[in-house]
Amino acid sequence: MIFCSKLIVKIMDKYTWISYVESAILVLVAGEMLMKDKQLDQQ
User: Fold this and answer.
1) Total structural domains within the chain
2) Whole-angstrom Cα distance, residue 4 to residue 6?
3) 43 domain-assigned
4) Cα–Cα distance between 12 and 7 in angstroms, integer?
5) Secondary structure, 3-state, 1-43
6) pTM of the model
């Protein structure tokens, strides 16, 4: 587990654009979850 975490950090340090791609994916998924949430539609 720790080895994989260190590997991911090394890759992200070398290729900084990966963190931007990961952030974009996170925003897209969170936005989709908010739009499909039935509890928010009721209010």
Assistant:
1) 1
2) 5
3) no
4) 9
5) CHHHHHHHHHHHHHCCHHHHHHHHHHHHHHHHHHHHCHHHHHC
6) 0.63
Residue-number span of the structural domain to which 6 is assigned: 2-38
The encoded tokens of residue 39 equal 């509890």
- Give tens-digit pLDDT for 9-29: 999 899 999 989 999 999 999
Q: What is the largest CA-CA distance in the chain?
A: 46
- First and final C-alpha spacing in the chain: 42
Name the average pLDDT for the chain: 89
Please give the Cα distance from 41 to 32 (Å, whole number). Answer: 13
